[in-house]
Design goal:
Number of helices of chain A: 3
Mean pLDDT of chain B: 87
Strand content of chain A: under 5%
Radius of gyration of chain B: 23 Å
Low-confidence stretches of chain A: none
Low-confidence stretches of chain B: 1-20
Mean pLDDT of chain A: 90
Largest interface: A-B, 53 and 53 residues
Structural class of chain A: mainly alpha
CATH superfamily of chain B: Sodium/glucose cotransporter
Largest sheet of chain A: none
Largest sheet of chain B: none
Order of helices and strands of chain A: HHH
Number of strands of chain B: 0
Strand content of chain B: under 5%
Number of domains of chain A: 1
Oligomer: heterodimer
CATH topology of chain B: Sodium/glucose cotransporter
Distance between the termini of chain A: 14 Å
Distance between the termini of chain B: 59 Å
Helix content of chain A: over 70%
Order of helices and strands of chain B: HHHHHHHHHHHHHHHHHHHHHHH
Shape of chain B: globular
Chain lengths: 104, 554
């Protein structure tokens, strides 16, 4: 890419919006995953009995099991949310930027 | 307690990608239904290789299947790369042995994927062509960066291959009644055939078929187990707790040391994001949109698979544990308890027999073999690409190699890696390879990942910083593994480890990032300034995909 095209893209409000929104969203989503995962691991390290509580009186199933499964589901839901937004909103912006410099 | 935890971390890591079977192996009698099904699989995949070979004409076809794989297909293939035989047998075996703790590891292996999606998949796809070194060297000096990235890739690939080959030899010996050497040579030869003739296209389809078979087989096992208990988890868990005590339902006091916990978490997350054979998969799709879909599907399949292995592990507790059919009588006479034939990692295999008889046992055994073949093929292709694309074409020929000669070199590299893998597989048969996969993850997390990440996001990165920092990260990881408890104490026989933790990632990753930072910000050369100025162009391309490699035309 030539320097003038890069400068043109950088000055494009759509580009600035794309970078800002997507970066912010990606960081927020990453933090959400890390917080959930590290909370889980550190609970196991410091207070494992919290996960060993029975789900209800007389139940053999512990709260740790639905929590563990929920983390797996949570990871998938985060990827689904991000993919949906990126494949629509972010890609639309990227395509607009491409058109503005005569790509595609 | 602490030691037990550390042992388990590494044990499970080794299990995840490798050391499928531990201890002495008793060769089984020939398993006919397994061999028939395996022959069907091999014939089908060789047919695919023949088909793929006719479509693999250019270097781009060879490395990336022409870039025309869909997000769904690639997601399935990525899941296939991740669901190795050892991951299937190892995690279900860990659940069988420890109950809830098996789930903790599954979660650790999964949570890296969303991070890969949010931070890596898209810029990687937009900037790269065939290998992750394309991205790392985008605006930095080719020769040193490519050399370092190739070294990190080849080291990771060879360590992983050793682990896979040893696991393969032992597993096949046990399941099919073949000699260890025969099994290792067979895996090596088939892998060379797939990769040299069919390139990425054949490798991807072998991986997709295997992932489908593995997911189907595991689903059948999980449903069969649940059907026994009227689809009530509480009833399944109650039976398991009756047989093995209520401890199987909660964390086993394993993670008592926060440093190890964090170090493990970092190794799994950053290591996954630095595995060359995984990163390479993102170049097989057409654009960033398909790259994102790949991760979405992969995360879904892998998460689903881990839930299945959890049910399978508990199924093995209730249906295999005290079943005299699977009892290792000789071992019981010595150690008491209820040891199962072949050790804990055979739990899923025995369960397949318990729920589906000889026929289904044959099916699952054939799938396990297919899984190993598919995983080693992906690894070898990634290693061969580092040799031909990074070292030969970029470093040795200074980017002036034509596609045909580059492809020839990568085929030669495939054959060489295949022979190395066979040789290493045989040489390491009796060795303690517990450190091998841990080391591969540590190198991926401490050398490959920081360079890749900072090259994409940090303007001030310079060649000097990346080379010195990446090398220090790599050296620290290797050194700490050698000085750690597994190599220093268990293998070299010293009394006390110099470095107390079995998992070095927390320390080596910090060394790597900190020294990359230091040697970049203190780099005032003109070259460094030029490299920083090129960041804008790179960042625009990473963000928008303008100028990115497209799918091939034919």
């Amino acid at each position: 890419m030539q320097k003038d095209i890069i400068e043109k893209i950088k000055a494009n409000p759509d580009y600035q919006k794309l970078v800002k929104t997507r970066t912010g969203y990606a960081i927020k989503m990453s933090i959400a995953m890390l917080v959930v995962y590290f909370t889980f691991i550190l609970t196991i390290a410091f207070n494992p009995s919290a996960l060993a509580m029975p789900l209800s009186d007389g139940s053999v199933t512990t709260v740790g099991i639905p929590i563990g499964i929920a983390i797996i589901v949570f990871a998938f839901v985060l990827t689904a949310l991000y993919t949906r937004r990126a494949n629509t909103e972010f890609d639309d912006l990227a395509n607009k930027i491409k058109k503005s410099v005569g790509e595609n | 307690m602490n030691r037990a935890f550390l042992f388990l971390i590494l044990g499970s890591l080794a299990v995840f990608a490798s050391g499928t079977i531990d201890g002495e192996i008793v060769k089984q009698e020939l398993n006919v239904s397994a061999i028939v099904m395996f022959i069907v699989f091999v014939s089908a995949t060789l047919g695919i290789t023949y088909w793929a070979a006719k479509r693999t004409k250019s270097a781009k076809d060879f490395y990336t299947a022409g870039g025309g794989i869909t997000g769904f297909q690639n997601g399935m293939a990525i899941a296939g790369d991740y669901m190795s035989a050892a991951s299937f047998l190892g995690i279900s075996g860990l659940v069988y042995l420890k109950g809830y703790d098996g789930l903790i590891y599954s979660i650790g292996f999964l949570v890296g994927w969303p991070i890969i999606l949010f931070l890596i998949a898209e810029p990687l796809r937009n900037l790269g062509k065939y290998t992750f070194a394309d991205v790392a060297s985008y605006r930095l000096r080719q020769t040193p960066i490519r050399t370092l990235a190739a070294a990190g890739s080849i080291a990771t690939v060879i360590l992983y291959l050793i682990a896979q080959m040893v696991g393969a030899g032992k597993l096949i010996q046990l399941l099919f009644g073949l000699d260890y050497e025969v099994a290792v040579i067979l895996v090596g030869m088939l892998m060379i055939l797939y990769v040299t003739f069919g390139g990425m296209l054949a490798t991807t389809w072998v991986q997709i078929i295997k992932a489908f078979l593995l997911l189907s087989g595991a689903t059948f096992m999980a449903i069969s187990v649940m059907a026994h208990y009227d689809f009530s988890f509480n009833s399944l868990f109650s039976h398991a707790a009756e047989m093995r005590g209520i401890e199987v339902m909660s964390p086993g006091g394993l993670v008592s040391d926060p440093i190890s916990a964090i170090s493990l978490a970092i190794a799994l997350m950053f290591g996954t994001a630095g595995l060359p054979h995984i990163l390479m998969r993102f170049f097989t799709v057409g654009d960033a949109k398909e790259a994102r879909k790949s991760v979405l599907y992969a995360t879904g399949f892998i998460g689903y698979f881990y839930i299945l292995t959890f049910i399978i592990g508990f199924g093995a507790i209730v249906m295999v544990y005290t079943n005299p059919e699977y009892l290792d009588v000789a071992k019981q006479a010595v150690s008491g308890g209820y040891p199962i034939l072949g050790g804990k990692n055979m739990a899923a295999i025995h369960l397949s027999h318990a729920v589906g008889g000889d026929f289904f046992l044959g099916f699952i055994s054939a799938v396990a073999f297919a899984t190993i073949l598919a995983v080693v093929s992906g690894l070898t292709l990634a290693g061969a690409s580092a040799i031909s694309h990074d070292l030969y074409a970029s470093v040795f020929k200074k980017g002036k190699a034509d596609g045909a000669s580059e492809m020839k070199v990568s085929k030669m590299a495939t054959v060489a890696l295949g022979i190395i893998a066979i040789f290493m597989g045989i040489a390491f048969e009796q060795q303690n390879i517990a450190f091998v996969v841990g080391l591969a993850f540590a190198i991926a997390a401490s050398a490959n990942f920081p360079i890749l990440m900072l090259s994409m996001y940090w303007r001030k990165l310079t060649t000097r910083g990346a080379v010195i920092g990446g090398s220090l990260g790599l050296a620290t990881a290797v050194m700490l593994v050698i000085l750690g408890p597994i190599v220093w104490v268990d293998i070299l026989g010293n009394a006390e480890a110099i470095f107390p933790y079995k998992y070095p990632a927390l320390f080596s990753v910090i060394v790597s990032f900190a020294s990359i930072w230091f040697f970049s910000v203190t780099d005032n050369s003109d070259e460094a300034k030029a490299e920083q100025e090129m960041f804008d162009a790179q960042y625009v391309r990473a963000q928008t995909g303008i100028g990115a490699e497209g799918a091939s035309e034919h």
